[in-house]
Amino acid sequence: MLKCQRILRPAVTVNARVALRRRGLQTATRAFCSPLRSSRAVQKPYHWNYTRAFRTSATCHKAISFNLADIGEGIAEAEVLQWFVEVGDKVEEFDPICEVQSDKATVEITSRYNGTILRKHYEVGDMAKVQAPLVDIDQEGSGGESSADTTATKDQQTPTPQQPTPSSSSGATGDAEAHTAHHRKEPVNFVEVEKALATPAVRRIARENDIDLRTVPSSGKDGRVLKEDILEFLDNGGVTKDAQTAKSDSADSSTDTGAHVHKRSGMLLTREDTKIQVKGVQKAMVKSMMAANGVPHFTYGDELNMNNLITLRTQLKPIAAASGVSLSYLPFILKAMSLALNDYPMVNAHVNDDASEVIYKGAHNIRVAMDTPQGLLVPSVKNVQDLSIFEIAAELNRLQTAGAAGKLTTEDMSNGTISFSNIGAIGGTYMRPVLVCPEVAIAAIGRVMSVPRFDDKMEVYNAQIANISWSGDHRVLDGATMARFSNTMKSYVEDPHTMLMHMK
């Protein structure tokens, strides 16, 4: 057998060369690539480079599906906020593909491959499934030996880089145009237009109102379109296509229909019923509240005298500002809560669904509710027990900035151990907060009010009072434990200098 192979190898090679001279280039290529030949000489002929140069089938490339990776524990889908690529674009490893928003965070998806975008499986606003194809990428120059069969079994209408016009006709004219465009190295039907700079929240408003952001006058830095810009654009008549059609039918359609733009959400509201899909952050809130509905809550309330804390903050605020940190009351309150948790670790715990196990959490990762353009988000300040008040303030500044820009990460949104809501920043004096399962405690503080109080000598003075409300999981905590914990925290808030004695 070995002798036969040695005899056949030069014979096949000679035949291939003769075919190249006598019968033309295409016949020689078929001789090299014929699947009926089984010897090594045919599978890998001497002039292998000629075969690659004249192969025009899709097997010269490797089309792969780039799946949406797991972007967080328990996340099954994410909303596509914006695409950074179009079909026909060339991408390299680590180039941004798109931006998605789960019920926990906004994530920028980057490419793991070099190649050409063949297909986008979702449009902006669609819910992309985790571990499902996000885009198809043609890895150019990968050869036909790796996954040509997989490519062939995919959609036969998927264009290759040599044929980037899926909407063109299949005749000879269309092929010639595609061939000419390929040699000009200019995209056909895929014109790359400069994208407007805007946050995901602004893009969502534009998408809901069918507005091209490039037509909106911008006032932000580097030409960034701000939320105020698009709301002003809407107020000036830059409304949806349906509203423009209605306006052409009537000289004063907005007056007739009572249409107006909601200042916060940016939605065009009319007197007609409007149906919207619950998704993203709102869907996460639905799931969280449904889970909390099955937990037996109890509520405890008290007053915090803020006079001493106000004085201390006034003294430290310029020092923090010199370091670029905005110092509010919240860092002091979070630190006071952390110090109290050292004495009452059962308040900083997680419980499983049937309350058969309670886990005392070692880290004090305090969630802070934030009102953002995307809705209610609750990121956490990690390891408060190890941070100074200035470090807590700096981290809060970072989280607030990221929340406003829609850039909170999965890490920011995960691993919370206890929650806090500063509802007083908006208004209100009392609130009954709802637990964030599997946590067992949450607090809410109202606005600071000037009220008359009596001192030890029964003399009236002006007291700055804030009301704090606690909700606890009654399967794990009782009222007495919550009251003692709250009293300890209250002592630190009302006399903030004592916190210095317990900081490490």
Automatic annotation (TrEMBL):
Cofactor (UniProt): (R)-lipoate
Assigned GO CC terms = cytosol; mitochondrial matrix
Q: Name one GO molecular function term.
A: acetyltransferase activity
The reactions it catalyses are:
N(6)-[(R)-dihydrolipoyl]-L-lysyl-[protein] + 2-methylpropanoyl-CoA = N(6)-[(R)-S(8)-2-methylpropanoyldihydrolipoyl]-L-lysyl-[protein] + CoA
The record's listing under CDD domains reads: lipoyl_domain
Low complexity compositional bias: what residue ranges?
148-175, 242-258
Keywords of the record, alphabetical order, are: Acyltransferase, Lipoyl, Mitochondrion, Transferase, Transit peptide
Which residues belong to any copy of the Lipoyl-binding domain?
63-138
Q: Which family does it belong to?
A: Belongs to the 2-oxoacid dehydrogenase family.
The superkingdom of the source organism is Eukaryota
Coarse class of the primary localization is mitochondrion
| Compartments where found | Mitochondrion matrix
Provenance organism: Sphaeroforma arctica JP610
SUPFAM superfamilies, per database record: CoA-dependent acyltransferases, Peripheral subunit-binding domain of 2-oxo acid dehydrogenase complex, Single hybrid motif
* A Pfam family it matches: Biotin_lipoyl
Q: What is its EC number?
A: 2.3.1.-
This one is known as Dihydrolipoamide acetyltransferase component of pyruvate dehydrogenase complex
Q: Where is the Peripheral subunit-binding (PSBD) domain?
A: 197-234
Q: Where is this region: Disordered?
A: 138-191, 241-266
